[in-house]
């Protein structure tokens, strides 16, 4: 088993963390070949807890619990961080990030957002990338349970919204079945954030009467489910938003055209939307796979297909500019948020929500 942190890779397992002997920890580990394709962290000031620190942390919590009144398990908060711009975080998310004991975070949570976690929190990276997972979902479940049972306040930071292709429902089921209180803080999902950034209304009177969210790959990695979903998605009055669709884009396009979608239907692929690294490729749907490949877009990339794409000012500028391979947008309103930002002061100053005996949160 591997613990991938921003500084090193350690061999361990959840069982080792909880009760086994400490593994030998050396300095200056190198990333294994299987993970070299991952992007290097942009902020060297961020650091993850190693195995020794996490074990000491758990022992401290357990010792305090044994010397005081028997403690209840700590709560777990599934917190959506939105599409990447820290200005799109909810105040509730920022408030919790300033009070958590442990933070388990995903690959899509930006460094600018991680800077808002208070310095005393233990950071645990559990990111996933196509073809390489630092932790299986089952191991993430075990870690969340272990920290909560020790009495810690645990935050699970997720890109976008925890309940939109974020596997939040699975984590709630697992923890709730074991007596752990779980609360979800919604985030702006990529579809909403990116469409708003580009000026694309997901629904528009007379053009699109519905929006359909689709994942580009199934749990088993096959295409049978995608065939069934695209059969219902090739509707000229529906906006189709595809998450995680880069690898299956050629197949997705083929299926949509086979089921009657107009080849000239406007479409857009957006890499790292709402961030300074945002890249945008406009194209009619019959040209989209070729143009996306030519631009070299990488994950995470969101696809939006439908007539509403033509309402975007960017689509109009792209057309008037000779349809370049990649559309260059004027700088967006992205602004990094630091520990001394007034927004952070406001969020931390909010009163905590009350929780009744049944565990339901109230404002």
Features:
elongated; five-stranded parallel β-sheet; five-stranded mixed β-sheet; 363 residues; disordered C terminus; alpha/beta; single chain
Tell me how many strands there are: 16
Taken in chain order, the helices and strands follow as EEHHEHEHEEEHEHEHEHEHEEHEHHEE
Strand content: 15-25%
Instruction: Please state the overall shape, judged from the principal axes of the Cα atoms.
Output: elongated
Q: Mean pLDDT, rounded to whole units?
A: 79
Q: What count of helical segments does DSSP give?
A: 12
Poorly predicted sequence stretches spanning 5 or more consecutive residues: 1-13, 20-46, 351-363
Major beta sheet summary: 5 strands, parallel
Strand order of the largest sheet: 5-4-8-3-9
The gyration radius over C-alpha positions equals: 22 Å
Distance between the termini: 41 Å
Which structural class best describes the helix and strand composition? alpha/beta
Amount of helix: 25-40%
What is the topological layout?
Elements: E1 2-4, E2 9-11, H1 14-18, H2 51-67, E3 76-80, H3 91-97, E4 102-105, H4 111-114, E5 122-125, E6 128-129, E7 132-133, H5 137-149, E8 154-158, H6 168-176, E9 182-185, H7 190-198, E10 210-215, H8 224-233, E11 238-243, H9 249-258, E12 266-271, E13 279-284, H10 288-295, E14 301-305, H11 313-320, H12 342-348, E15 354-355, E16 361-362
Parallel strand pairs: 3-8, 3-9, 4-5, 4-8, 10-11
Antiparallel strand pairs: 1-2, 6-7, 11-14, 12-13, 12-14, 15-16
Helix pairs in contact: 3-12
């Amino acid at each position: 088993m591997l613990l991938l942190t921003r500084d090193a890779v350690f061999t361990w397992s959840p069982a080792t963390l909880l009760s086994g002997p400490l593994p030998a920890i050396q300095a200056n580990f190198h990333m294994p070949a299987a993970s070299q394709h991952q992007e290097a962290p942009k902020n060297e000031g961020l650091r993850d807890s190693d195995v020794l620190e996490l074990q000491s942390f758990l022992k401290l919590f357990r010792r305090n619990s044994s010397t005081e009144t028997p403690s209840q398990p700590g709560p777990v908060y599934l917190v959506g961080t939105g599409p990447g711009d820290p200005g799109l975080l909810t105040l509730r998310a920022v408030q919790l990030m300033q009070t958590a004991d442990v933070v388990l975070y995903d690959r899509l949570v930006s460094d600018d957002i991680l800077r808002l976690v208070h310095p005393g929190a233990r950071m645990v990276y559990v990111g996933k990338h196509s073809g390489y997972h630092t932790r299986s979902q089952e191991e993430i479940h075990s870690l969340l349970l272990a920290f909560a049972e020790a009495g810690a306040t645990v935050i699970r930071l997720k890109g976008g919204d925890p309940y939109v292709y974020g596997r939040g429902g699975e984590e709630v089921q697992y923890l709730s079945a074991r007596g752990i209180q779980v609360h979800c803080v919604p985030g702006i999902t990529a579809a909403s954030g990116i469409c708003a950034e580009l000026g694309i209304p997901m629904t528009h009177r007379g053009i699109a009467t519905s929006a359909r969210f689709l994942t580009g790959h199934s749990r088993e990695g096959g295409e049978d489910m995608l065939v069934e979903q695209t059969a219902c998605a090739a509707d000229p009055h529906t906006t189709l938003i595809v998450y995680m669709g880069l690898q299956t884009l050629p197949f997705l396009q083929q299926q949509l055209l086979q089921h009657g979608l107009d080849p000239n239907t406007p479409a857009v692929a957006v890499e790292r939307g709402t961030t300074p690294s945002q890249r945008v490729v406009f194209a009619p749907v019959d040209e989209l796979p070729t143009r996306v490949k030519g631009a070299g877009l990488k994950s995470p990339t969101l696809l939006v297909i439908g007539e509403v794409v033509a309402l975007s000012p960017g689509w109009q500028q792209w057309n008037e500019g000779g349809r370049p391979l990649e559309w260059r947008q004027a700088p967006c309103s992205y602004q990094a948020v630091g520990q001394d930002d007034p927004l952070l002061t406001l969020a931390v100053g909010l009163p905590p929500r009350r929780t009744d005996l049944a565990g339901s949160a109230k404002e």
